[in-house]
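look at this:
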Amino acid sequence: MTRRALYGAAVLQPEVTAAIVSAVLAELVERGYARLSMEGVAKRAATSKNALYRRWPTKQDMVLAVLADIGVPMSDVAETGDLRRDLRAAAESMAAWLAAEPYSKIIPDLIAEAQRTPALAEAISTTIAAPRRAHLRSLVAGAISRGDLPTDTDVEMAQDIVAALIYWRMVVRQAPTEPDFIDRVTDTALRALGATTT
């Protein structure tokens, strides 16, 4: 017996998804998260609201999925076992993501909105921050096991050091970064962590 396709089953067309993703990013840049609406995204993408809801149940889910999928995850940076090289690669990946258009305009607004919306803050932490922290945690754990970092290294604090240095300069201060910025961040983090190798 031939099984028929379910009536009304959604077939997600890649070209429609691509148009929606572009529309979400453009709306975030122009309007910000608070003023972004499903109606506005659908209109810009020349599609229907139903097309959006077939993919994501809420605005928050849609925005975070777009940012998580298109962003450059730290997990894509391969570990080599060389602490300085690996830490520098992680720092470079994060800085590149924050500097790239349209993220340089979107991330500050999204973080500000998260201060007012606990559910959004939790979702950002889970969807965007968690993969990057997991990668840094793996780097730190490997360095401890090799003896490159002290055995009493505060793993949670270690994960924060690199991100804090980059985020403060690029997002909070919005200050320019010099050509040797990533090297200085890396060396500062290694000194702060008491690394035995540089």
In short: The chain has two domains: 14-59, 71-193.
